[in-house]
Design brief:
The complex is a heterodimer of chains A (439) and B (363).
Chain A: H1 3-42, H2 45-79, H3 81-114, H4 121-150, E1 156-158, E2 161-163, H5 167-171, H6 176-205, H7 210-244, H8 246-253, E3 259-260, E4 264-271, E5 276-283, H9 286-292, E6 298-299, H10 313-344, H11 351-359, H12 363-377, E7 382-384, E8 388-389, H13 390-393, H14 401-427
Antiparallel strand pairs in A: 1-2, 3-6, 4-5, 7-8
Helix pairs in contact in A: 1-2, 1-4, 1-6, 1-7, 1-12, 1-14, 2-3, 2-7, 2-14, 3-4, 4-6, 6-7, 6-11, 6-12, 7-8, 7-10, 8-10, 10-12
Chain B: H1 2-34, H2 41-52, H3 56-73, H4 75-84, H5 86-108, H6 113-141, H7 166-190, H8 215-251, H9 253-261, H10 265-284, H11 288-310, E1 313-315, E2 319-320, H12 321-324, H13 328-357, H14 359-362
Antiparallel strand pairs in B: 1-2
Helix pairs in contact in B: 1-2, 1-3, 1-6, 1-7, 1-11, 1-13, 3-4, 3-13, 5-6, 6-7, 7-8, 7-11, 8-9, 8-10, 9-10, 9-11, 10-11
The chains are: A mainly alpha (439), B mainly alpha (363).
């Protein structure tokens, strides 16, 4: 394994690991706040129990997210010192703001987790609100820094250096809005789906359990809201990519030739050697229509840039297909749930629906990871699109495969422990008979 | 350009300072978890756990602030340090990850006692290892052994020589002892014994059954445990400080010159020594609040004295603050954000500590 590949693998692995915990840190506070808010309003103990149990689980996830995020802030320099030497000051603004947002989040999370009996009820709920707002903002700021790598702005490029930096312009770069919108919704969608799925799996066995019913209802509502909005956000993002990152769009769609009235490809297997895409279902003109609102609009093909400036097409295309596929599946599941709920005048009762959602548990997270792959792999070979190549940014240290393997082993271990602990949390929830007066 | 750079530099030292006083003490708590012994070992662990659980994540963020400020304002220094000190930093990160995760697993997991003990063990061991590596990294960065540039094909040697030397490891030991000392003193203050401060509390014989004690006595005994630990670690801290200065003579000559030869050197050394001795005396006489005040003062003197000795270097001796600083257009907004952020942050931080650290006044 080359050092560059080891560095990229370590970064990809660290981000893929962290992003799950980051999403939990963004979305779970919303679920907890809804549960606690329902407790304050209805005084049904099940809601308080739910908020507290969710908080315990979230505390584990938040801690792992905090330390793995710390690793990332160092890894930017450990693996990509040349990138940080050039870009550190340009992306310093969002990272500084993120630092403060994360600080606020950590402070109020401490109050939320340990303050149940120490602060008044309303103050406690407000502490949770502070966690939600600052946690979401943390994610927003980090994503603007990533957006800058895709559509760099706010500097002059003189003699290979980034000078006359305008930090706010850099932070509010062209891709910032669409990326922030899309990835923030993705966090709520992924976590809403995962939580709904877990409680659906328990409801399948214990359908009258008031705890799981309350949890499922809240998670399904969050998932549904995000699932309906996400295709719109995805559309905005795709249109933006078409304008500002045409080569990335070409890789996402496995579009080799520049053509007007380009087709939308569903599935298919792009071959980088033969420069063609086979076995895809093509909808004529649909890509041009979706990207520019005009069936005859011209779509830039991969062949406009030499092979060494193209991103890995196969990975980008497949990841995009997975993300879009799930992006259609989840709103469909949510709408189905809406219909069932409407007919039941309450929570969906059909057990097959519980099973369906249980099966969908990981899909939101898979889509989140796939979307991340699209934006990161689709930017290659650039680390700062058009200005600095990933290969030029890597550290000169040899034997990078060693830290890659070491951190991979560490994260695998942590991942397994977290899964076991989370499952124990779920199993510890009492069965329906333990909630007198609730069933 | 100079002034903004210096101001951000001061902010970085301030963040490190706060990290040492808060996050550092959390690490020190882990050290005492590792060294918990005697009839009250489990109670010691519990007291440590209660003291750090609500606040450690917030305290930890100071380190992230340091990193972000460093790469935003001094990207050249960040790039050099992260390149050359890759290995000790990676080891430190491994410690940070394991320690934070294990602490959360132990606190919030639903598990057997055995599993909880194992997570506690991981938390304790990594709490001791991580500060050492932090000290090693800091020591190496001021050792003067960081190469200006790396020739391609120079192999692995430049990635080891800066930190595989006596000085960084003595500093690592000093940081560990300092953090442990802080933790023990904080715990003395936070364990109100139900007896007025300054008066000797009844000693509890080893093996005395906890069922026979009332809560106050048990807490007093616990406090005595931490008092002894604070005294011992204070002495170790002092010894390692001397060793550090001695090792710096060859291991970090520029810093050594700053500490020994500046016009402020003698008063600085005298003050630090007096404050350290005062903290020990206060502990001896069980004036715990005074001891805490003096310990905090001591840490402040060490951090700022070191900062002053290092000025104007960021990486000794290759990189001065004015060479490494980003342009004014970057530094000013950072200072602005630091100011605006502090307005939100410091009250929130204060609120957190008021909620969870008020117990001392309660009894």
């Amino acid at each position: 394994m080359s050092d560059l590949l080891a560095a990229r693998s370590q970064m990809a692995m660290s981000l893929a690991f962290h992003i799950v915990f980051a999403a939990v840190g963004i979305a779970m506070p919303l679920l907890m706040l809804i549960a606690e808010g329902l407790w304050l309003r209805t005084r049904r103990p099940v809601y308080l129990d739910l908020a507290k149990r969710w908080a315990r689980g979230t505390a584990i996830m938040f801690a792992v997210g905090a330390v793995s995020g710390t690793v990332l802030s160092f890894e930017l320099g450990l693996l990509w010192p040349t990138f940080m030497r050039h870009a550190g000051p340009v992306v310093g603004m969002p990272f500084s703001l993120e630092g403060f947002a994360f600080f606020t989040e950590a402070i109020f999370l401490g109050i939320y987790l340990y303050g149940w009996n120490r602060v008044p009820e309303r103050a406690h709920w407000l502490a949770g609100l502070a966690v939600l707002v600052s946690g979401t903002l943390s994610g927003v700021f980090v994503v603007t820094a990533n957006a800058w790598m895709n559509t760099p702005a706010g500097f002059d490029f003189v003699d290979g250096r980034f000078v006359n930096v305008r930090p706010f312009q850099a932070m509010l770069n062209p891709a910032a809005f669409s990326e922030v919108l899309h990835s923030t919704l993705a966090a709520f969608l992924a976590i809403g789906t995962a939580v709904a799925g877990i409680h659906a799996a328990r409801l399948y066995r214990d359908p009258r359990n008031p705890f799981h019913r309350a949890a499922f209802a809240i998670a399904l509502a969050v998932m549904g809201g995000a699932a309906i909005l996400q295709p719109l956000a995805g559309d905005i993002a795709a249109r933006h990519v078409a304008r500002y990152q045409p080569v990335k769009l070409a890789a996402m769609e496995a579009q080799w030739e520049t053509e007007s009235s380009a087709p939308l490809r569903i599935g298919g297997w792009p071959s980088e050697a033969r420069e063609e895409t086979r076995w895809s279902l093509e909808i004529p003109g649909a890509l041009s229509l979706m990207a520019f609102g005009d069936r005859s609009a011209e779509i830039t093909g991969l062949k406009t840039v030499p092979p060494e400036l193209r991103p890995p097409v196969l990975i980008t295309h497949l990841a995009f297909q997975v993300m879009v596929g799930i992006g259609f599946l989840l709103p469909a599941l949510a709408l189905l749930g809406g219909v069932l709920a409407w007919r039941a005048r309450g929570l969906p009762e059909a057990r097959w629906y519980f099973r369906l959602l249980a099966l969908a548990t990981p899909t939101g997270l898979v889509a989140l990871e796939a979307g991340w792959v699209v934006t990161e792999v689709g930017r290659q070979p650039w680390i700062v699109a058009g200005f600095l190549k990933t290969a030029e940014a890597v550290t000169p240290m040899p034997w990078l495969v060693v830290p890659f393997l070491a951190f991979t082993a560490l994260y695998l271990l942590l991942g397994v422990v977290v899964l076991v602990l989370m499952w124990r949390h779920v199993l510890a929830i009492p069965s329906a008979t333990a909630f007198p007066g609730e069933a | 350009m100079d002034q903004s750079g210096i101001l951000v530099g001061i902010a970085i030292v301030a963040a490190l300072h706060l990290y040492a006083l808060t996050g550092g003490a959390d690490f020190g708590g882990g050290v005492w978890d590792l060294l918990a012994a005697g009839p009250r070992a489990e109670k010691q662990r519990q007291a440590i756990h209660e003291a750090i659980a609500p606040i450690w994540e917030a305290n930890h963020v100071w380190m992230i602030v340091v990193v972000v400020l460093l790469f935003s304002a001094f990207p050249a220094a960040f790039a050099v340090l992260m390149t050359v000190l890759h290995i000790p930093i990676a080891l430190m990160l491994g410690g940070i990850v394991l320690r934070g995760s294990a602490f959360a697993f132990r606190s919030y997991g639903i598990q057997t006692r055995e599993a909880a003990r194992r997570f506690g063990r991981v938390f304790a061991v990594t709490s001791a290892v991580t500060p050492v590596m932090l000290g090693v990294v800091l020591g190496a960065s001021i050792s003067g052994r960081i190469p200006d540039h790396l020739d391609p094909g120079s192999g692995l040697a430049p990635f080891f020589t800066p930190w595989l030397a006596p000085f960084p490891w003595v500093l690592g030991g000093f940081v560990l002892a300092l953090f442990a000392n802080l933790a023990a003193i904080y715990l003395c203050v936070e364990l109100p014994a139900g007896v007025p401060e300054g008066s000797p509390s009844r000693s509890v014989a080893p093996g005395e059954s906890s069922a026979l004690e009332d809560a106050g006595d048990s807490r007093a005994a616990l406090r005595e445990d931490f008092r002894r630990r604070a005294l011992a670690s204070g002495v170790v801290c002092g010894l390692l400080a001397w060793a550090g200065v001695a090792a710096a003579r060859r291991g970090a000559p520029e810093i050594y010159a700053g500490i020994m030869a500046s016009h402020w050197a003698l008063p600085f050394q005298l003050t630090t020594g007096l404050v350290a001795a005062g903290a020990l005396a206060a502990l001896w006489r069980r004036r715990f609040r005074l001891a805490r005040l003096l310990a905090i003062t001591q840490v402040s003197l060490v951090v700022w004295g070191w900062g002053a000795a290092q000025y104007p270097y960021l990486v000794v001796p290759g990189l001065r603050i004015d060479e490494a600083a980003a342009e004014e257009g970057v530094l000013r907004p950072i200072l602005l954000i630091l100011l605006a952020g502090s307005v939100i942050l410091l009250p929130a931080f204060g609120y957190l500590f008021i909620i969870f650290k008020r117990r001392e006044k309660g009894v």
